[in-house]
Amino acid sequence: MINLHGLILADRSSSQLSGLVKPRTSASLPFAGRYRLIDFALSAMQNALVRDVGVIMQHDYQSLLDHLGSGKEWDMSRKRGGLRLLPPFGLKEERRGQYASIIDALTSVQGYIRDIQQDYICLCRGSLAANIDLAEVMRRHVSSGADVTVVCSDRNPESSHYRFVTDEHGFATELLKHHGGKGEGYASLEVYIMSKKTLLGIIERCERFIDSKFHRTGLGGILASGGRIAVYMHHGYAAHINSVSSYYSASMDMLQAQNRHELFPDERPVRTKGRADVSTHYAEGASVKNCLVADGCYIEGSIENCIIFRGVQIHKDAVLKNCIIMQDSIIDNGANLSYVIADKDVEIGVLEYLSGSPRFPLVLPKGTVI
Amino acid sequence: MKRNCIAMLLAGGQGSRLYALTKDVAKPSVPFGGKYRIIDFPLSNCANSGIDVVGVLTQYRPLQLNSYIGSGQAYDLDSSDGGVFILPPYQSAGEKGSWFSGTANAIYQNMGFIENYDPENVLILSGDHIYKMDYSDMLREHVKHDAACTISVIQVSMEEASRFGILATGEDGYINEFAEKPKEPKSDLASMGIYIFNWKKLREYLIADEADPNSSKDFGKNIIPAMLNAGEKMWPYRFSGYWRDVGTITSLWDANMDMLSPTLINLYDPDWPIRSKSPIRPPHYAGEDSSIVHSIVTEGCEIEGSVANSVLSSSVKVGRGARVLYSILMPGCTVEDDAVVEYAIIGENSVVRRGAHVGAQPDGSDSWSVATCGPNIEVGAGAVVKPGAMLYDSVSAGEGGER
User: Both ends of chain B: CA-CA distance in Å?
Assistant: First the structure.
């Protein structure tokens, strides 16, 4: 066991994910053929032997609840503790059902945080695709004596994010909000380890100010008052999924062996809800080039540069290029698709022709029949 | 706790005719059809048939089987007052304890387990067949015909009949003759080794058989003939679906190849799922220059070469320029760049090094057969493994292999 409690933020989805988060929150967005984004946070915790984890959720969480179940896939179905789902509860009337920020979400589960048995808490987002060695982050956090340890990446997201500028010892000197691309310091993956006391302190501090923010008021306040924030560099693959284009490009990143092996290393497996599918069947005339294909598919047509989820059927003479086809979708004879993201249970009829572009892939919402 | 019917699954056999493939594991835990192990079929059939207590009798090399079955969670068989129970041979006070000396003896030694559930009927299964069967339908016929024993039977060709236990029925439809592997079979109804017994009756016959020093303590050889001689009502349950014995290298290879034809046995049927405990691995990756046709491929595989008419279990690697044809690659094995594997079975976690060649196409000769590499071995770079070979150990680089 480890003296660490997990807290996963699955409350908000970026509006730029548009159709992809209509039936779900971004934490339960299907990714890499068989996973949901929250699997990365849960598995990182599981691999660090964290067993008590709270998931803060707010709306559109039906698919998330279905995916998490009792948490047994991540060894979090325990007699005491284990996985705890934290839907909105006990908010003041005017804030009910809408967390405006991280701090809003944390404030609403303050009672839960106070009752946490462990001395340390790992706070992270459910929509981060990264395989972080949390046991190592925790070890470094404790030995550094820092108030907070933040996990940063040397990759630079295209969207706006926080960056930490560090001194020669790896401690943060400055916290910046950045609009995307390269910049001073390192991009925060918004994975934080701190003591329970520090986290409660941040919440209290934020409550004293109007329009307070977790990063600016909370972490900024720690820096301003002489506290220490240590930066832990995660060198493996990392992607925040917060728009259709970041979803598409992160998905296509998985076609490269290096990225795939960084996100799914043998020593820290990523677990997800099992479905007991059959192996994938390739028929006589099938053709496959540079694709990631999950179990339970039936492939008769041609696929190139595609991510194919579980239970997808691709019939004769269908040609798919640069597509993402989610669970149980059916592509009929002779259909021709490129740069298409088909959500779950989509059906494309005989000889249909559909095309998006690399920067604007065409998103077909869940259950679309064409 | 009382049950109408519980199942006892005989999984203790070595499967000696699978040679190297069962040197470390019992036959029921041999990988099959990409996602499965052989025992997944009877256990899934139990779960789908509503049988929620299954005793699994183990004896030979049970470690992998035990950890694979676990609590039966993969089959949804884990419940508060039922589930899957591993039953190894054990010792009682004042006894020396003994191994199971035959199939009937294995059940005899576990009468205590059965009586915990006070069942009306007991279903006896074996762990070496590939099939989908609704045991509850068989149980309905068993009860309807007030049988002491119901034997599931399948029609076989007269040429094959002498390899099976063959039954004959009277005008009333009940079984009136049973012959184990007869030289001149009188009918084409073969026993599938699946029995439902009235437990009270079976108990009597087990106790009597145990007392007979000349008995080989076997269902087919002793219990069934004894019941027939005593005039018990024995009913044949006719089964007509897909059913294959996978007890030999050739039959294991054949049945795996059958999995490439979903018309023979439909594993996609949501109403009769065959479940397995599979490791959670990322989807399989097929590379820029790969080619995969008429094959099944499982998660965790990384394919850069060409694969045709083959069955690939999870986490198999096929390197650039490598060719895999008409072969079965078990979990975790690797075929390195430019190696060729044809008409072969490669055991779990074995490695075929760069440029090696395992197996060959049928040449019409009688001596030709499928080449087999056991688990956890290495076929060195450039080595040649001839058709029909049975490798227990690694082969050095460049070696001509062994026959």
Answer: 55
Which positions in chain B touch A307 (Cβ < 8 Å)? 283
Lowest-pLDDT range of A329-338, B260-269, B289-298, B319-328: B260-269
- Residue A367 vs residues A329, A370, B1, B341: alpha-carbon distances, Å: 8, 10, 45, 42
Per-residue model confidence (pLDDT) at position A159: 85
Pick the most confident of A354-358, B260-264, B344-348. B344-348
Candidates A351, A363, A286; CA nearest to A324 is A363
CATH 3.90.550.10 domain locations along chain A? 4-263
- Cα dihedral sign for A56, A58, A60, A66? positive
ipTM of the complex: 0.91
C-alpha B187 chain-centroid distance? 25
| pLDDT digit string, tens, across residues B133-185 | 999 999 999 999 999 999 999 999 888 888 888 999 999 999 999 988 888 88
**Which one of A73, A274, A293 has the shortest CB-CB distance to B284?**
A293
DSSP letters for B315-331: T-EE-TT-EEES-EE-T
pLDDT per position as a tens digit, A254-273: 999 999 999 999 999 999 99
CATH topology of domain A4-263: Spore Coat Polysaccharide Biosynthesis Protein SpsA; Chain A (3.90.550)
Q: What contacts A267, CB < 8 A, 6 or more positions away?
A: none
B286 and chain A in contact, CB less than 8 A: yes
Residue in the structure block whose two tokens are 């500028």: A165
CA-CA distance, B135 to B139, in Å (whole number)?
6
Query: B376 touching A, CB under 8 A?
Result: no
Q: Quickly state the pLDDT bin for B403 (edges 50, 70, 90).
A: very low
Distance CA B373, CA B344 (A): 8
Phi-psi region of B231 (alpha: psi -120 to 50; beta: other; left: phi over 0): left
- Whether A295 sits inside 8 A of B260 (CB atoms) is no
What is the spatial distance between Cα A57 and Cα A323, in angstroms, rounded to a whole number?
30
- CATH code for A281-364? 2.160.10.10
CA distances to A14, A208, A259, A357, B279 from A360, rounded to whole Å, are: 17, 43, 23, 5, 35
Mean pLDDT for all residues in chain A = 92
Q: Give span(s): CATH 2.160.10.10, chain A.
A: 281-364
Cα distances (Å, whole numbers) of residue B14 to A196, A265, A309, B21, B61: 56, 35, 38, 10, 8
* Residue A195, min C-alpha distance to chain B (Å): 33
Residue A352: alpha-carbon gap to chain centroid: 33
Tokens found for residue B298: 């499982």
Number of neighbours of residue A22 by Cβ within 10 angstroms = 13
